[in-house]
């Protein structure tokens, strides 16, 4: 740390390697490198010898073999004739999917609860505090198990929704305007349907629906157009001091083209109906997915609520007062003064919560949702008996997901960071 | 404004009126209600919404709790009693299962005649922690704190006392070697402090142990690891993990802050690797892969294997917490330590770490809470933790088949009490230790 102004003596003695601050750090680093290499070599050597004893080798060829097992939820085409590599990919996509929807709902819950906890309303803020404390202090596994037990033990069987011909009433009725049916085997939700579809392009990876692509592209274009429009409004405001009314034009630019396209494509939601013993017509989401989703969202939501609350409290009251003194209305104070500063505090811990949620999605093991751990680290591992390859590969994939998410979020973080000199 | 009344004033009050009682709606309960619950339309709507939620919760759960049955031999009997007492179709909790099996929730399959050992270890734990938490206690008690891990290991796993004693002797020899050589050369002393115990354990422990065991066979009944379970297992894993991961975490945090490129790189790689991988993957490493990485023929206890991985896992998180504490220290503290001429380790030990660790206390406690919650994941490598494995075992008994909610409520409540208590205590500690730098 410190460099003492030694008068360098002529010649070099071996003890200088330890006692001379110029060489000491080099010596330590060489020793550490040597130790780490020796440790790694020891581990690798042990592994090779153990593999020899067991008569196993180390290769990933098994990934090309037929998997021979089915996966209930697959976002890309998959059958038991597909390879283990394909099964791994299906599992990876399932992990990413549950993490994605989980992050969105957890953020919504977290922001809502975090803001409500700061509400002047005594009752609501106490309720929210209770929610946060209860969910934060009890293991996530319990919430997932409670959710799956609720779904499988309390919910009725699909045929409870059947209308009794004599009474004309069903034992149970569907919720949300007769569109969602919770049963003890799955949750039936409406599916999307395009009556005048553009068709589907089959790629070797997965079939891609042109309708969805068209909607997404159009929406991206709308967002771009809206940004141009807001930019124009800003320019006008800067030049004349009067801001043109933008809010309804913005909404129009953002949503009108997409709505028109959806109508043109004949978009509608196809509601599930009970046929025979099961619901058909909609999408049947497995209870494993719903339970995992609910557990992850509610648990992580409690943590995010605390982050949001801390972020808002971190903005000093003087900022609000100063903005009010400038004559701003409360909505604008929130949008222009508080949020940009709170976001700076909120985003870094929020990223780590997203990462936690992604890693916690491996608790899918508790409900049998086939995520990466269920496929590659579960059935594939058990069938092929290649623990070493499967688990190393699985850890590598999780590590890559984490690094990519934290990298992307750090970029965003850099954008919202306070610009200091 | 006391003076001569103006001649134009028709009336001037000569004495003060007593203060009026405030209006009924501006004081007491009505005022509080108006300000906190019904200050505006939006607020009133929120209150009604909150009351609705509260009503839903209470109307669903209160009967279930209130109709609870404590005395029954099976779930069917519970249901029968509830139906008799509260009418057909009434819901009610069957707490009888907790009453019948609470020892299993606490101790797993630990032999019931030996329950006093984990209980004693648990009580002694507080004795060991006390001098750390309360500085007014005699400092001599810290010796017990140092010895406690070995005492706890012996009490929990049982067996002969000599192997445990040999470990302690090894540490003592190391300390002795350091004392003797510290005056000559600190480097030599540090090397000796590591080498002497290692040599002692690898060459001398075996013979001495066998001699002592044959002369003085001082042993209590051994308990194998697979009989551990319930909260005993959760506490052993959580506490053992955190105790071992603190020193490792400090070293990693210092490594990450180091100026030396290689040391920094290795620390960062380790920390980021561990933090990027879910705990379940690491637990699978413990149960499936650890045997590959160790010399052929090594096969040791599953609890120890899990503990090693849990330690590595929490060490990475602790390292990040402590790194935050190190970074939060004002630069002047480092410079002042340098100016006093302290070397690196002295500066860390006397100036930097005491302050950095103090700042990190809330983070360390929340890491510990997280880890205590994560110990439930060991169910997936076949250990009997209290949340999933023990209720599954209980449900496997025909009498309690289908009992879901009562174990959840019981185990959840215990976790809540532990974790909520710890987080409140850390907040108190934070306030107590707070020194503002002005």
UniProtKB/TrEMBL annotation, chain A:
Swiss-Prot/TrEMBL GO biological process terms: amino acid transport
One Gene Ontology CC term in the entry: ATP-binding cassette (ABC) transporter complex
Keywords assigned by UniProt, alphabetized: Amino-acid transport, Cell membrane, Membrane, Transmembrane, Transmembrane helix, Transport
One GO MF term: transmembrane transporter activity
Top-rank lineage group of the source organism: Bacteria
Pfam families: BPD_transp_1 (PF00528)
Compartment(s) of residence: Cell inner membrane; Cell membrane
Main localisation: membrane
Entries under CDD domains matching the protein: TM_PBP2
PROSITE patterns documented for this protein: ABC_TM1 (PS50928)
Domain ABC transmembrane type-1, residue spans: 92-409
Similarity-based family: Belongs to the binding-protein-dependent transport system permease family. HisMQ subfamily.
Protein name: ABC transporter permease subunit
Native source species: Paenirhodobacter populi
UniProtKB/TrEMBL annotation, chain B:
Source superkingdom: Bacteria
Protein family: Belongs to the binding-protein-dependent transport system permease family. HisMQ subfamily.
Membrane topology recorded in Swiss-Prot or TrEMBL: Multi-pass membrane protein
PANTHER family noted in UniProt: INNER MEMBRANE AMINO-ACID ABC TRANSPORTER PERMEASE PROTEIN YHDY (PTHR30614:SF41), MEMBRANE COMPONENT OF AMINO ACID ABC TRANSPORTER (PTHR30614)
Gene3D superfamilies named among the record's database cross-references: MetI-like
Keyword Transport found: yes
GO molecular function, one term: transmembrane transporter activity
Keyword Cell membrane attached: yes
Major location (coarse): membrane
Intracellular or extracellular location(s): Cell inner membrane; Cell membrane
Protein name: Amino acid ABC transporter permease
One Gene Ontology term from the biological process aspect of the record: amino acid transport
Gene Ontology cellular component annotations, sorted alphabetically: ATP-binding cassette (ABC) transporter complex
Domain ABC transmembrane type-1: 231-426
TM ranges: 41-66, 114-134, 188-208, 228-254, 266-290, 302-322, 359-384, 404-425
Species lineage: Bacteria, Pseudomonadati, Pseudomonadota, Alphaproteobacteria, Rhodobacterales
Keywords: Cell membrane, Membrane, Transmembrane, Transmembrane helix, Transport
């Amino acid at each position: 740390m410190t460099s003492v102004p030694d008068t360098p003596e002529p010649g070099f003695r071996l003890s200088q390697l330890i006692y001379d601050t110029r060489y000491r750090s080099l010596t330590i680093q060489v020793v550490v490198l040597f130790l780490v290499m020796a440790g790694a070599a020891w581990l690798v050597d042990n592994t090779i010898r153990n593999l020899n004893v067991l008569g196993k080798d180390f290769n990933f060829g098994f990934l090309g073999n037929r998997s021979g097992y089915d996966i209930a939820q697959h976002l890309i085409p998959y059958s038991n004739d597909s390879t283990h590599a394909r099964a791994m990919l299906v599992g990876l996509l399932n992990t990413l999917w549950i993490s994605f929807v989980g992050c969105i709902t957890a953020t919504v819950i977290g922001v809502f609860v975090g803001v409500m906890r700061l509400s002047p309303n005594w009752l609501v803020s106490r309720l929210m505090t209770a929610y946060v404390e209860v969910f934060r202090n009890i293991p996530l596994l319990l919430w997932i198990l409670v959710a799956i037990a609720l779904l499988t033990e309390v919910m009725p069987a699909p045929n409870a929704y059947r209308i009794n011909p004599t009474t004309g009433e069903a034992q149970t009725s569907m919720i949300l305007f007769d569109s969602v049916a919770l049963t003890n085997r799955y949750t039936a939700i409406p599916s999307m349907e395009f009556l005048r579809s553009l068709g589907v392009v089959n790629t070797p990876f997965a079939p891609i629906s042109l309708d969805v692509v068209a909607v997404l592209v159009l929406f991206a274009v709308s967002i771009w157009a809206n940004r141009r429009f807001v930019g124009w409004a800003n320019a006008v405001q800067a030049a004349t001091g009067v801001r043109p009314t933008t809010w309804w034009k913005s909404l129009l630019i953002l949503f009108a083209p997409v709505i028109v396209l959806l109508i043109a494509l004949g978009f509608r939601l196809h509601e599930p109906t009970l046929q025979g013993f099961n619901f058909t017509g909609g999408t049947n989401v497995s209870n494993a997915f719903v339970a995992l989703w609910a557990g992850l969202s509610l648990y992580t939501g409690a943590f995010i609520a605390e982050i949001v609350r801390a972020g808002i409290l971190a903005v000093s009251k003087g900022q609000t007062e100063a903005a009010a003194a400038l004559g701003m209305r409360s909505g604008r104070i929130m949008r222009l003064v508080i949020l940009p500063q709170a976001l700076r505090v909120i985003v870094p811990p929020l990223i780590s919560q997203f990462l936690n949620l992604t890693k916690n999605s491996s608790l899918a093991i508790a409900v049998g949702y086939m995520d990466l751990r269920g496929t590659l680290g579960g059935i594939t591992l058990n069938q092929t008996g290649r623990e070493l390859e499967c688990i190393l590969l699985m850890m590598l994939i999780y590590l890559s997901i984490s690094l990519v998410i934290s990298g992307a979020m750090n970029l965003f973080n850099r954008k919202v960071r306070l610009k200091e000199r | 404004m006391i003076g001569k009344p103006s001649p134009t004033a028709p009336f001037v009050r000569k004495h003060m009126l007593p203060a009026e009682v405030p209006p009924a709606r501006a004081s007491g309960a009505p005022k509080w209600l108006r300000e906190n619950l019904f200050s505006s339309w939006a607020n009133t709507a929120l209150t009604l919404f909150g009351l609705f939620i509260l009503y839903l919760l209470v109307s669903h759960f209160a009967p279930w709790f209130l109709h609870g049955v404590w005395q029954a031999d099976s779930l069917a009997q519970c249901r029968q009693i509830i139906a008799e007492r509260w009418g057909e179709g009434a819901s009610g909790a069957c707490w009888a299962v907790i009453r019948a099996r609470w020892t299993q929730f606490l101790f797993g399959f630990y032999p019931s005649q030996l329950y006093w050992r984990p209980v004693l270890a648990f009580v002694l734990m507080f004795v060991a922690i006390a001098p750390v938490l309360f500085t007014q206690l005699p400092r001599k008690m810290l010796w017990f704190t140092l010895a406690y891990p070995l005492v706890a290991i012996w009490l929990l796993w049982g067996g002969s006392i000599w192997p445990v004693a040999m470990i302690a002797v090894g540490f003592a020899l190391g300390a002795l070697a350091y004392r003797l050589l510290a005056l000559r050369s600190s480097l030599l002393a540090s090397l000796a402090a590591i080498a002497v115990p290692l040599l002692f354990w690898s060459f001398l422990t075996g013979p001495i142990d066998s001699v002592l065991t044959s002369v003085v066979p001082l042993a209590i009944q051994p308990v194998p690891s697979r009989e551990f379970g319930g909260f005993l297992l959760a506490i052993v894993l959580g506490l053992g993990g955190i105790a071992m991961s603190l020193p490792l975490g400090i070293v990693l945090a210092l490594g990450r802050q180091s100026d030396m490129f290689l040391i920094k790189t290795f620390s960062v790689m380790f920390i980021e690797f561990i933090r990027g991988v879910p705990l379940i993957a690491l637990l699978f490493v413990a149960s499936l892969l650890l045997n590959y990485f160790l010399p052929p023929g090594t096969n040791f206890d599953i609890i120890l294997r899990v503990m090693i991985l849990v330690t590595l896992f929490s060490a990475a998180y602790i390292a990040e917490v402590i790194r935050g504490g190190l970074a939060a220290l004002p630069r002047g503290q480092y410079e002042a330590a340098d100016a006093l001429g302290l070397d690196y380790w002295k500066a860390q030990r006397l100036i930097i770490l005491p302050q950095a660790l103090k700042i990190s206390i809330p983070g360390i406690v929340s890491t510990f809470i997280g880890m205590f919650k994560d110990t439930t994941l060991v169910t997936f490598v076949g250990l009997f933790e209290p949340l999933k494995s023990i209720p599954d075992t209980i449900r496997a008994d025909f009498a309690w088949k289908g009992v879901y909610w009562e174990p959840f409520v019981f185990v959840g409540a215990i976790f809540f009490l532990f974790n909520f208590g710890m987080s409140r205590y850390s907040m108190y500690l934070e306030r107590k230790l707070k020194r503002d730098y002005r």
